[in-house]
Amino acid sequence: MPAVLVTAASVQDSVAGAALINQFADEQPAVRTIRVDGGYREHAAAVGIDMRIVQRP
Fold first, then answer.
1. 6 lies in a domain?
2. Domain for residue 8, yes or no?
3. 25, 27, 30, 37: least CB-packed within 10 angstroms?
4. 7 in a domain, yes or no?
């Protein structure tokens, strides 16, 4: 059930990520934990999803 969003380079990651997290939360209400980049920490928490921050290589 991975979720992927492809956007134009001009779209900010934080904007696209928030939209993706909203969509995922609506479509997969049973999922309570996701792995995210540190930039999405606040938004994931706002929709009631626990997150694990994935460090970039």
1. no
2. no
3. 30
4. no
